[in-house]
TrEMBL record:
Source taxon at top rank: Bacteria
InterPro entries recorded: CdaR-like_regulators, CdaR_GGDEF, PucR_C-HTH_dom, PucR_C-HTH_sf, PucR_dom
Family: Belongs to the CdaR family.
Protein name, entry field: PucR family transcriptional regulator ligand-binding domain-containing protein
Annotated ranges, domain Purine catabolism PurC-like: 5-128
Organism: Ruminococcus bicirculans
Residue ranges of every copy of the PucR C-terminal helix-turn-helix domain listed in the record: 329-387
Entries under PANTHER family matching the protein: CARBOHYDRATE DIACID REGULATOR, DNA-BINDING TRANSCRIPTIONAL ACTIVATOR ADER
Gene3D superfamilies, per database record: PucR C-terminal helix-turn-helix domain
Domain CdaR GGDEF-like, first and last residues per copy: 152-275
Amino acid sequence: MNCEDLMNIPKIYSGMKLIAGGSGMYRNIRWIYFADCTQCLSDDFKVSQLIHGGELVIVTNAALTDNDDKMLSMIVEMNQKNIAGLVINVGQISPMLTEYCNDNELPLFELSYDLHLIDLSQIVCKALVEEESNTNSIDQLLAAIIYSSNINDADIKIRAGYLGTNISDKNHIVVLKLNKNNKLQDSYENLQRYIRYEFKNYGLQKMLMLWQIDTGIMLIPSELFSRDLLSNILTRIIDHIRSYYGVDAKAGIGSAYEYISELKKSFQEALNSIKISHSESKSQKVFFYDNLGIYSLIAQIKNDKFLDEYVNNHIGKLIQSDVLQEGDLCKTLEAYLDHNCNAAAAAEHLFIHRNTMRYRMDKIKKILCCELDDLDVYLELKMAFEIKNYRESQKDQS
């Protein structure tokens, strides 16, 4: 639940008014914290010691709200711990605090005397507990979809309906993979809320999402999200993760399937997309399985020994030559194949002289004992390099 969700609760909306920081309504609420203790007035008291992040902070003590300097100092300190918002009694909000909250996108609410604190705390805490329970049920439902061997489409749709979400038409499975980082361990809850908020902005009110260590798994209806829109949202999420947590991430998107029982396939495709991504552009962040061409075919082959033997049988001698002589023959041949057997274009790509290119190609032909202008040979060598890159990317991830 974020601050915007909070204000959609009728009893809250009628008794609380947004005063400042409206652009920060996306902030997620983790719990409530009452900052009315007398010790808060002490100069040596550090309120940040009691703040974990995500709290909706309530201040009603006039001794605090009447002291602009102390109040602002305390709010700045709490905002550094990423509190969700600030609630203050009507008539106790200073212009200085309003200005700070607007500048820092910190939601500031004015609390009416008609909404008693006990009622406010009960409403918010009940909503948070219900949300937690609902989230756990959603986790279990998605886990059943992607891991259970025998599932009934009709039963899953009924269960989804009870949870307030609808599974119909075609759906993708999206996997968001983060680089392992122990420092992020306490931030996964906030990250999940941010992801849900991003998709909610585009009409996905309740998203099926499951989080496992450093991997987020989401069910996304293809009817709501075009490929471009989905790519843009995921790129924004990945940029957010990098900016706020200093962690790199990639997203893999499986094909869209109509039947729920087929979504296990979409899940595996999404995982394969991320595995294959290491063979693609290093700057790319979002990968659609059906855009990966030959790699999607290679990923279906589970026999690693077979793949390695294929590489060794076709370009193994060339690889060994490069190792012994510290050469660039593999790199040269791959560039030659990538440029449709155009030696001049390959030489330009490699920034080498044409005579150097000609010398290397002659050497390659002798080592491999083959004619490179033969179409069958071209296809075999091209496949060998694709498999080589794929297998190297797998080893990089292990």
